[in-house]
Amino acid sequence: MSFFFRAASRQRPLPQEIARSLKDSLVALDTKTGAKALEDAEKNILTLRHTLAGDGEVEPNQEQVLQIALEICKEGVLSLFVQNLPSLGWEARKDLVHCWCILLRQKVDESYCCVQYIENHFDLLDFLVVCYKNLEVALNCGNMLRECIKYPTLAKYILESSSFELFFQYVELSNFDIASDALNTFKDLLTKHEDAVSEFLSSHYEQFFGLYTKLLSSTNYVTRRQSVKSFCWRPQMLK
Fold it and tell me: Of 198, 186, 116, nearest to 154 (Cα)?
């Protein structure tokens, strides 16, 4: 009986151990080949998900979740998440996206540590936008981007980056699911943060509406309909 009690009460790995194991296994994907490296990485991602969100039997410990977020940033794991996303299997990608969303929401000492990490590595956002071209990970990247767009500094960067114009191509892709997902991300970019959007439109008015007008005359009926339906420009956005 005492054996089972000890086993049941055994704690999960420490935050530092989880972050370090994740880093090592994701780095190994770049340096090793074979199923073992992938298996290790996916196993560690699942451990992270269970620690952040619970596993159905044990609820997450919020203090531990916050510590994991700090360690993830310290070890540069967010960058490895984005860089290795295409290498992972379907289930692991889903777990990774779930972890990404939870991590970005963690507030430590009045600041979102993972958001701050991305602010110092804006290239991750460009990578996620470009990955819409990859059919296997496009929807995963869309979910990750929409989580990022909830934060004004990240949304502002995407709006002002050269990769933003890619959305005008993505919403007309022949793959309906990806085009619809890109349109949802596009909509969030232009509606979530009024001040940032107003500033963007004021400085990129002709360029933006030149591209937007083309969407309104698209040969794709769904694109035309959603472009009209989704974006009702308000005068105050052009102040």
Answer: 116
Contact (Cβ atoms closer than 8 angstroms) between residue 84 and residue 92: no
| Partners of residue 108 on adjacent β-strands | 111
The percent of residues in the chain predicted with pLDDT above 70, rounded, is 85
Q: Could you tell me which residues are beta bridge partners of residue 112?
A: 107
Whole-angstrom Cα distance, residue 43 to residue 26? 11
Q: Measured between alpha carbons, how far is 7 from 19 in angstroms, rounded to an integer?
A: 23
User: Quick one: pLDDT at residue 33?
Assistant: 66
Which string of b and e fits 175-189 if b means at least 16 CB within 10 Å?
eeebbbbbbbbbbbb
- In single-letter form, the type of residue at position 75 comes to E
CA pair distance 140, 173, nearest whole angstrom: 17
Q: Compute CA distances 29 → 92, 139, 181, whole Å.
A: 14, 22, 28
Structure tokens at 30: 């770049």
Query: pTM higher than 0.70, yes or no?
Result: yes
Least confident of 166-170, 176-180, 184-188, 224-228: 224-228
**Burial (Cβ within 10 Å: 0-12, 13-18, ≥19) of residue 171:** buried
Sequence-ordered list of residues with C-beta below 8 angstroms from that of 77, at least 6 positions apart, any chain: 19, 22, 23, 26
